[in-house]
Amino acid sequence: MQRSTIALACSFLAASGAQAQLVSPTIGTPSLDRWMYPFNGSPGFRLEVSAFGATLLEGFDDHDAQVLVGFDTSGDIAPGLGEDGYRIIEATLTMTVSNDLGFTYDDTYDSYTTYVMVGEPDILDTDPGRPINLFLVGYREGFDQTTFSESTAFGFVPEVEPAQGMRRAFAAQYDSAGIAMDVSNHLKDQFEAEPLAIGVTDTVNPGDLVPADTAFTFSFTPCDQGTGLELARMLDLGELRFAVTSMNPASGGPDGGSGNYPIFYSKENPIAQIFGYTATLSLTVRVGDEGDFNGDGEKDFFDVSGFLTALSNDDPAADITGDCQFDFFDVSAFLSAFAAE
Question: CA–CA separation, 284 vs 185, rounded Å?
Answer without folding.
Answer: 32
